[in-house]
């Protein structure tokens, strides 16, 4: 049985900064595609009166793959 290991990234995006966030997500997606053990990503958005809450769930096939990502130059960006 495979155990999927997940990182949760949550950010509150101010109105007017949505494009900046989307560019960052694009860079993140490109970097993740090169990461060993990367299994996939799910993005969730929840609007509110002051902007929106964005949550990204990033899945890795193992704790080692997740640790490798977190300790990489991309994982600390």
CATH architecture label: 2-Layer Sandwich
Q: What is the CATH topology assignment?
A: Alpha-Beta Plaits
The level of helicity is 25-40%
The number of domains is 1
Ends: how far apart? 32 Å
Output the helix-strand order: EHEEH
Alpha carbon gyration radius: 14 Å
Give the percentage of residues in beta strands. Answer: 35-45%
What brief labels describe this structure?
3 strands; 77 residues; Alpha-Beta Plaits; elongated; 3-stranded antiparallel beta sheet; alpha+beta; 31% helix
What does this structure look like?
The chain is an alpha+beta fold and 77 residues long. It has a single domain, classed as 2-Layer Sandwich (Alpha-Beta Plaits), CATH 3.30.70.100. It is built from 2 helices and 3 strands; from the N terminus they run E-H-E-E-H. Strands 1-3-2 form a 3-stranded antiparallel β-sheet. Strand 2 (38-48) and strand 3 (51-60) form a beta hairpin.
Short characterization:
31% of the residues lie in helices and 40% in strands. The chain has 77 residues and is of the alpha+beta class.
Topology (elements, then pairings):
Blueprint: E1 5-14, H1 18-33, E2 38-48, E3 51-60, H2 63-70
Antiparallel strand pairs: 1-3, 2-3
């Amino acid at each position: 049985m495979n155990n999927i290991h997940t990182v949760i990234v949550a950010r509150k995006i101010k109105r007017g900064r949505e494009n900046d966030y989307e560019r960052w997500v694009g860079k993140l997606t490109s970097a993740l595609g090169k990461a060993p053990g990367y299994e996939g990503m799910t993005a969730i958005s929840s609007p509110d009166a002051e902007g929106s809450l964005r949550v990204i769930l990033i899945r890795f096939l193992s704790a080692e793959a997740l640790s490798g990502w977190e300790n990489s130059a991309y994982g600390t960006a």
